[in-house]
Amino acid sequence: MSDTRPIGVFDSGTGGISVFQELVKHLPNESFVYFADSANCPYGSKTQEKIIELSSRIVDFLVRKDCKAIVVACNTATAGAIDWLRMHYNIPFIGMEPAIKPAALNTKTRSIGVLATAGTFKGRLYIETSRRYASDVNVCYQVGEGLVELVEQDRVNTPEAEVLLKTYIKPMLDCNIDQLVLGCTHYPFFKPLLKKILPPDVDIIDPAPAVAKQTQKVLKESHLANSKENSFTSFQFYSSSDTRVLEKLVEAVRKEVPINKQNIRYIGNFNVLND
């Protein structure tokens, strides 16, 4: 049996495209509906109540789009809302896991860095994962204030971004880290700058591939996978703001994974309450 219904993916903005890219790599037969809540971005400084409200509205929309599973491609939304979502919806949810475990296992200096939003650091997942896997290593954490906005404004490869990243990375290097965990789906877009700033012996850990593998596992175990090879796949991208940056990032993804441009649809300035 093959389930041809799409997979829903949402983020506070365009950052979840870094996860979408890995999802397409691992699940080439699947269709996707992506929602970028760029009008309300960033989520990092919002209260948990607000994050749950925004997330539930988006999930309602994705359910109405007949999505068979939903990937919460946002660390802050995962931290603040995924427990609530799993309690209130009868659909599989896959969230962003803080990639602290692989960092703690692979560190040789016994010191790791975590770059994330304030909302992620407050979340149950981050706290529990840190206690479980990083109790015997030094964790140098940094709130990446302003980085999400740079991605949303298409200012990733700018001198401003480099200066801000250097400000955040320096205290971590002073702590002798050899692993840097990216705790926000927007941050992988800074990898070229980070590789320029960081010494070559510091590994950058992006959790997106692990999330894609987990999604693949959940679909298989729930008998929701589309196993029909060469089946028609569609890619719908919705944004609560304009789609300019979203389209640019998706075009970059098309250079890495096979996505037929004719199967892509963009809808901007979309209100999830009035679809």
Task: Give structural notes.
There is one protein chain. This protein has helices at 17-26, 48-64, 75-88, 100-106, 118-122, 124-133, 147-152, 159-174, 191-197, 208-221, 244-254, and strands spanning 7-11, 32-36, 69-72, 93-94, 111-116, 138-143, 179-183, 203-205, 235-239, 264-267. The chain has 2 domains: 7-96 and 209-274, Rossmann fold, CATH 3.40.50; 100-206, 3-Layer(aba) Sandwich (Rossmann fold), CATH 3.40.50. A 6-stranded parallel β-sheet has the order 4-3-1-2-9-10, sandwiched between helices. α9 (191-197) links the parallel β7 (179-183) and β8 (203-205). α1 (17-26) packs across α10. It contains 11 helices and 10 strands. It is an alpha/beta fold and 275 residues long. The mean pLDDT is 94.
Number of strands: 10
Ranges where pLDDT stays below 50 over 5 or more residues in a row are none
The percentage helix is 40-55%
* Side-by-side strand order of the widest sheet: 4-3-1-2-9-10
Percentage of residues in strands? 15-25%
List the secondary-structure elements in sequence, H or E: EHEHEHEHEHHEHHEHEHEHE
Count of all domains? 2
Top-tier CATH class of the largest domain: Alpha Beta
Main β-sheet: number of strands, strand sense, barrel status? 6 strands, parallel
| Gyration radius from CA atoms, angstroms | 18 Å
The CATH architecture of the largest domain would be 3-Layer(aba) Sandwich
The number of distinct helices, counting runs of at least 4 residues, comes to 11
State the distance separating the first and last CA atoms. Answer: 31 Å
Task: Please state the overall shape, judged from the principal axes of the Cα atoms.
Answer: globular
Instruction: Round the mean pLDDT to the nearest integer and report it.
Output: 94
Task: Please state the structural category.
Answer: alpha/beta
CATH fold descriptor of the largest domain: Rossmann fold
